[in-house]
Backbone:
């Protein structure tokens, strides 16, 4: 297998933490996003949405989209389970992973990609070009603050995002919080449960090795 990757950016980081938790190592091929290599026809043939991470199997089949790649890896390396084991765990983890992605991760992406500094004409990842919508910056900031508040309440009663065990939902939430810090959108000090959880997950070797 081969993993098309780019160092330091959020979605590849999510996958690298996921793989480290499972002890999986796959040779990497760097796709230079700054040079626009993700949009070249050769890479587009492997990754229809022109993004990383993208996994190429030994038979040449390619799988992109973070959740799809993680699901594939979970199927071939079930231990430790990061998407749950029982039907109930699987449902609960998928629910929280989706909530963290939609309300947290996408809000940070809106803030970044619609701000003045980068991504001219590339407000959305994918094969098509879109102009920025500057209003999404403030809305993104508001949504992140609301996400922090919601997680603060939730984590008052749960050790991890999806309950008592670390899961893929923690990876999504952790990378969201760290990604938001790039934009100086941090949680208030009064969010003690969120901070307790953030310290707990940040101390995992998988996270420390991919920071
Ligand atoms: N929907 C994709 C998003 C992946 C994504 O946004 N990757 C970014 C790097 S964090 C990327 O490849 N960006 C290319 C670009 O900006 O054109 C997924 O779930 O994997």
Residues:
């Amino acid at each position: 297998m081969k993993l098309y990757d780019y160092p330091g950016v959020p979605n590849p980081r999510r996958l690298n933490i996921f793989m480290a938790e499972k002890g999986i190592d796959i040779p990497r091929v760097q796709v230079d996003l700054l040079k626009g290599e993700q949009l070249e026809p050769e890479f587009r043939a492997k990754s229809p949405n022109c993004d990383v991470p993208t996994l190429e199997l030994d038979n040449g089949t390619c799988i992109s989209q973070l959740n799809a790649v993680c699901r594939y890896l979970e199927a071939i390396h079930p231990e430790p389970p990061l998407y749950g084991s029982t039907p109930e765990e699987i449902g609960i983890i998928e629910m929280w992973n989706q909530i963290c992605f939609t309300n947290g991760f996408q809000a940070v992406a809106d803030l970044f990609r619609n701000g003045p500094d980068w991504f001219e004409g590339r407000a959305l990842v994918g094969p098509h070009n879109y102009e920025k919508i500057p209003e999404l910056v403030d809305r993104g900031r508001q949504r992140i603050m609301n996400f922090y508040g919601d997680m603060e309440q939730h984590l008052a009663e749960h050790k991890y995002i999806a309950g008592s065990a670390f899961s893929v939902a923690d990876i999504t939430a952790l990378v969201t919080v760290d990604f938001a810090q790039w934009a100086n959108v941090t949680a208030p000090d009064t969010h003690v449960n969120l901070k307790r959880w953030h310290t707990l997950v940040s101390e995992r070797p998988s996270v420390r090795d991919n920071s």
